[in-house]
Amino acid sequence: MAIRRGRGVAAINYPxxxxxxxxxxxxxxxxxxxxxxxxxxxxxxxGQGLKQVMAQICAETIGVxxxxxxxxxxxxxxxxxxxxxxxxxxxxxxxxxxVQAAREARQVMLEVAAEALEVNASDLETDGTGxxxxxxxxxxxxxxxxxxxxxxxxxxxxxxxxxxxLVPRSYPEVETGAMKPSTCYAHACTVVDVEVDDETGEVTxxxxxxxxxxxxxxxxxxVEQQLVGGSxxxxxxxxxxxxxxxxxxxxxxxxxxxxxxxPGPGDLADTEIIVLERPAxxxxxxxxxxxxxxxxxxxxxxxxxxxxxxxxxxxxxPITPERILRALKEQRAA
Amino acid sequence: xxxxREEKRMAKVPIQFVLNGDEKAEFVESGSTLLKVLREKxxxxxxKGGCHQGTCGTCSVLVDGELRLSCLTLxxxxxxxxxTTTAGLAEGGxxxxxxxxxxxxxxxxxxxxxxxxxxxxxxxxxxxPNPTREEVVDAISGNICRCxxxxxxxxxxxxxxxxxxxxxx
Amino acid sequence: xxxxxKTFATLxxxxxxxxxxxxxYLGGGTLVVRAANEGDVSLxxxxxxxxxxxxxxxxxxxRATIGASVTMSTIARHPDLAAIAPAARAVGGPAIRxxxxxxxxxxxxxxxxxxxxxxxxxxAEVLEGDQATPIDAFLKARDAAAGRIVSAVRFDVPEPxxxxxxxxxxxxxxxxxxLSIAVLLDEASDGTIRAARIALGCMANRPMxxxxxxxxxxxxxxxxxxxxxxxAVAGExxxxxxxxxxxxxxxxxxxxVHLGRLLLS
Amino acid sequence: MELRKNYFADERKxxxxxxGQSRPRSDAPGHVTGKTAYFADRTFPGLLHLKMVRSPHxxxxxxxxxxxEALKHxxxxxxxxxxxxxxxxxxxxxxxxxxxEDEYVLAEDKVRWKGEAVVAVVAETERAxxxxxxxxxxxxxxxxxxxxxxxALKPGAPLVNEFHPGNFYLYDSGDHRKVRFGDIEKGFAExxxxxxxxxxxxxxxxxxxxxxxxxxxxxxxxxxxxxxxxQAMFFTLDNTSIILQMPGHKLHMVGGxxxxxxxxxxxxxxxxxxxLAARLTGRPVxxxxxxxxxxxxxxxxxxxxxxxxxxxxKDGRIVARKVTGYTDAGAYSxxxxxxxxxxxxxxxxxxxxxxxxxDTYCVYTNRTPSSAMRGFGVTIADFALEVQMDKLARLIGMxxxxxxxxxxxxxxxxxAHRQPTTGAALIECMQEASxxxxxPVAEKYLQMSxxxxx
Lengths: 334, 169, 265, 454
Hints:
In chain B, helix 3 packs across helix 6. In chain B, 37% of the residues lie in helices and 16% in strands. Chain B has 2 domains: 2-88, Ubiquitin-like (UB roll) (Roll); 97-168, [2Fe-2S]-binding domain (DNA polymerase, domain 1, Orthogonal Bundle). The radius of gyration of chain B is 17 Å and the shape is globular. With 169 residues, chain B is of the alpha+beta class. In chain B, strand 1 (12-19) and strand 2 form a beta hairpin. Chain B has a 5-stranded mixed beta sheet, sandwiched between helices. Chain B starts with a helix and ends with a helix. In chain C, the strands form 3 sheets. In chain C, strands 4-5-8-6-7 form a 5-stranded antiparallel beta sheet. Chain C has 11 helices and 12 strands. Chain C folds into 3 domains: 4-49, no CATH class; 52-156, 2-Layer Sandwich (Uridine Diphospho-n-acetylenolpyruvylglucosamine Reductase, domain 3); 162-264, Enolase-like, domain 1 (2-Layer Sandwich). Chain D folds into 2 domains: 48-142 and 207-296, Aldehyde oxidase/xanthine dehydrogenase, a/b hammerhead (Aldehyde Oxidoreductase, domain 3, Alpha-Beta Complex), CATH 3.90.1170; 165-204 and 300-403, Aldehyde Oxidoreductase, domain 4, CATH 3.30.365.10. The longest helix of chain D is centred in the last third of the chain and has 17 residues, at 379-395. Chain D is globular, with a radius of gyration of 26 Å. Chains in contact: A-B, A-C, A-D, B-C, B-D, C-D. Strand 11 (270-276) of chain A pairs parallel with strand 1 of chain D.
C-alpha cells in the first residue's frame, strides 16, 4: 500500500451576469415616516444572502445603518421586475438597481433636509449613523428620522427612488463570434494537495488554498460563506458527483443523498481563502459576482494534483477511485 | 365528488404527546409520519421535508431526547413521548447557545438544513457537553448541507459547546 | 387505500396480522416507512409489536441474545457488546442508528446491511419465536422469510482481538458501503490461524461468506506472506453489486486490498 | 478568510460605513429558530396534491392513454393530460427570443426521455394521488434512443426532438456557435508543439436540500397566488402566462426565500401545471418534487465533451487554441443553447492567445433535459482548459504556474471575441497563490501586473 502525495494548480476567470447581457433588474426604495427605508424587489434569495447585501448597499448609498433598511422580496404584485437569481448576477445587477434607486431617494432626502436646515442640498452630507449635516459644519444637522417626518407631514414629499440596471444585449457576430459576453470578470487561483491510495484509487484532498478576486467584498463574512461552500462543491464535483455514474448509460443514477455522492463532514480539506479586490468599474461599490466561480478552480486543480501524485490523467469527471484504479492498472501493464 | 368524500373518511386515531413542553392531543390519519403531523397538524414547520427517505436529516427532531428522523417515524409510535424541535429551543425569547453560535458563526446560508443540524448537534451536546471535532462530525453525519461545506457548522457546534461549559464553570 | 398502523402486544398476534395482503412489519421504519413515503402503494398496513422480548438484550456466559427491535445505537452503547460496536456504528448517521434495528438490518438489501455482515461472521442464529436458524441459511432464504417476524439474534460475543470489522465508504463518516468485511479469527498462541469466518457485504445482493479465503487462512500466520493465498481467492464465489456507489469491477478489485489491510491491522 | 488589501489599493475606496462590514445576516435568526417561511411552510385547508405519471421509456410513441381507472380511484379529483393544457408547447427562453418552443408540458405524441411527464393526477391526499398514478394506463411503442452526443450527430441517428433536425440546436451561425480570431492554421504551423486532448463530464445534480415545488391558492377574484421556490419570479410568471394562455395580471407569484438553488430552480416546470390544476378544481394545489424527482427528473448540469487542440512554443507562449465543445441538452432545450453559447464566449480562458477557433454545439439526446447549474457553461470548460494547461506546461518542461503567468491576460489585451481586456486580476491571484501555497515562481513573475503593459 502506498499513499502518494501530489499537488496541482488551476487559474480561472468568470463572467459576472447573464452571458451577452440583456438581463434587467429593478428596485424601488422609499422611506417610512420615521426614516426607515424599504427596498422593494422581486429578486430571489437562494440562501447566498441577497437580502442582506441589498440592505447594506441601500444603507451605504442613503447614509443610514443597515438595520434601518428592510428588504421586501419577492412578490410579483409589489416588486418590480427582476430577471432572476442566476449567472452570478444578483449582487451586480440588482445591487446596481438598488444603488440607483437609493441615490434618487437620497437626493429627495437631502432636499428635504436642506429645506429644514435652510441650506443648499448640495452642501449636505450624511454621517452614516442616521444624521445629515452641512459639510464641514457637523453641528448644523438634522436626523434622518426628523427629515422623514418633515417630508411626510410638512412638505408632502415622497422620499423614494426608482432603480433599473440593464447591460444592453449583445448579439454575437455570426462568422467571427465578435460579442460582448460580460462587463466584468472575477478571478481565482487554487492550489490543491492530495493523497492518492494507489491500491484503491481513493483520493484525499489534504489542503486547498484558494485566492479569489471578486471586485469588492461587500460583506466579508458572507463572501467567506460563499467561497468556503463553493470550494467544497468544487472538490465534490471533481471527485464525487454525477447523476449518471455510468454515462452515457442511464443506469444506476442516484435517487437519494446516500447514492448521490458528496463529501461528508469527515472528508473536509484544510481550506484557506484569500480575497483580493479589484473593483469592477460598473459594479455596485465595485462588486463582481463571486457565487459561481468559487466552485470552479478546485476541479482542475484536483485533477492536476492526482496526476502529480500517481502519474495518470483522468480527463472524465468525476475522478472516481474506479477511474484512477483502471488507469493505474493500465499504467502498470504498459 | 362522492368518491372523494369516501377517501376523507379514513381511519383517524387519537394521539397525545408533548411538543416542546406543551401537551398536544390530535386525531391523525393512522400511519402518518411525525413530520406530517408536526408540520400540517401542529403548525411546527421547523422540521423540513428534504427527502422523506431518511437521507438528508432536515426533519431531525428529538423524541424523548433521542435524535430521530421525523419523516420515518410514525406519529402513533410517539404516543406519550416528549418531542423537541428547533422551534422549541429558545426560552423566553433567549436563543439556545447552539442557535446563537449558528447565527454568530455565519453557519447558515439557505437555512433549510439548519433546524435539523441544530437538533443533531443538541442530541450530541446533551450527551457529550465537550465533544471533540470527530464527535461533532459524527453527530451531523446524517444531515446534508449543500451551501456551507460543513466547516462553519462544525465550528459553530464546537463554539456552542465551549460557551456552554464556560457558562457552567 | 389509506395507510394504517396496527400494534400488537405479542409477536404471535403481529405474525398473524402480517399474513394480510399489503401488511409489512414496522421495525425502525428506515426501510418500510421510506417505501410508503416514496409511493409504494402495495404497502397498506404497518404491523408492529410491542413485545418486550423484541427490545431486550441479554448477555449470559458470553452468549448474547439481542431482540430484533434493538437499535444500532443501543448495541453501540452496550457495555457487554463493545466488541461488535464498530459494526453497529457503521450503520448510517446517529438518527438512523437510533432507529435502525437488528431485525431490519437482516433484510436490508446491499449496499445496506452492514451489521448483518458482522452477524454472519459471528455465526449468529436467527430466532423466529422458538425456531433458530443459522444465519447462513437464513440469509440465503431471507426473501421467503419476509412475511415472518424475526424475534432475536443470538451469538457468542467475540473477544475483541478476535473480531475485526471494516466498512469502506466513499463519504465519511457515514456513507453507504463500497463494501464491508467482518472477520472472526481463532489464532493459536504462536499466531497460527486455527479457524476463520469471513463475511462480506456488497459482494452479492446479501451478506455472504468468503469460504475459499477462510480455508486458505487456516494454518497460516497473519503476515503479508501468510495471508496472500487467502487474498488471492477472496473474490471466489462473489457476485458484487453494481450501483451508484461503485461497480462490480471496482468492488472485486479492492476486496483483497481491504481484506488484507483488515487482517494485518 | 484573509482580505489582502495591498493589491489594487489605488482603485478602491475605503471610506465606507456599511460596505465592507460583516454585518450579521438579517435572515439568520429565522433560520436558527426554524421560523423562516419557505414556500411549503404554509397550510391551506382543502389542499390537493399533484403527482405525475412519468415515462418508463427513454423514447417511445404514445399510442393511447387510459385514465378511466385513475379517475374512479377514491380521492382523485382531476386527471390532466396534454389536451387540458391551453398552450402545451413551450421553451423557457422564448421570453428573450431564444426559440423554438420545443417541449411539451405534458407529453403528446411521444416521450423523449425516461421520466418525462405524461399525465398529472390531482387528489385529496398524496397517497391517493400515488395510487391513481399507478392506475393510469399508457400504451407505448418503444423507439430507438440515442445517449451519446457524437452518435446523435451522425446521419441516421434516432431523431430526438422534431424541432431540432439533426439533433443539434440551430444558431444563426449554423449548427454551432463560433468564434474566429487570428489564423488558427498559421498558429499551429508556427508552434513548436501541438497537443490535442479530449475531456468529458457526466451530468451533475444541483441537489439543493429543499426540492423544487409550489403551492397554488386560487383567490376569489379569478387570480392565483403561487408560492414558489423559483429562482426567477418573472420567468415563472411569464412562461405560465403563455402556457396557460392567462393574462399575466391573473398570476401572482410569491417567493424569494429558497432552500438552495444552484441553478436547479431556474426552469419553469411545476408552477404552470399546478396553477392549471388549481384553476380547474377551484382548490389549492401542491406540487412538490420528491427527492427521487429532484435527483433524476429535474434538469442537471449538462454532460459535456470538449476537445482542445493547442499550439505552444518552447518558451511557453500558446500561439493557437482550437476548442470544440459539445453540450448534452438531453431531450429539450431549456437553458442549454444559452449555456453552450456561454462556453463559446468563455474560451480560450483567461489567457491571451493570438489565434483562436471555437465551435460549441448544443446536442439533443434521449436523457433528462439539462439546464442551468452554478458555473453554467464554464465549470466543465475550466476543468478542460486548466488540465490542458497542466499538460502543456509538462510537455514543454515548464513549471505549471509559471506557464500560466506567461500566457495570462492583462488589461488591453484583445480577447478572441474581440473585447479588450479590462479589470484583469489573474496575475495577482496567481502571485498570491504562489506565496500562500509556497509554490515558488521566478521573481519576474512576481513583478508582473495585470495593468496594461504590466
